[in-house]
Amino acid sequence: MYSLWMSIEPKFPETRVMLTMGGVGTLLRARFPLVPKQPDGMGLFLKSIAAWHGQPFCAVLDADAVDVQKHPERWSRLLGDLDESVIRVEWRGYSQTFRRDNLINTVGDFRQGKRMITYTATGLR
Length: 125
Prior knowledge:
Blueprint: E1 4-11, E2 14-21, E3 25-33, H1 41-53, E4 57-62, H2 66-70, H3 72-80, E5 87-92, H4 111-122
Parallel strand pairs: 1-4, 4-5
Antiparallel strand pairs: 1-2, 2-3
């Protein structure tokens, strides 16, 4: 079982990423441009996370995101050339039923990412 989990939420105009560790909680929250400028940017980022922590992890992509729905081939390319023994990528849909405005001076609302990781790891909603 994985102890590191990452949510990837492509939401225009950005992609939100959250890394969590079982028993510890959130390790990283970040907002990046919607799509990396370099084709291998996403893969390099994910490989770097695995190398930093020295262990494999599971990344969960929000398959319900508009950009993923419109351009699944792009997201497949961005996440396709990864060593599955180190980084497993799960495409998960989990429709959000409400939206909360971002607070001033925060990175934003990452509740959707937490739900995606919980659903993927445990099957619980």
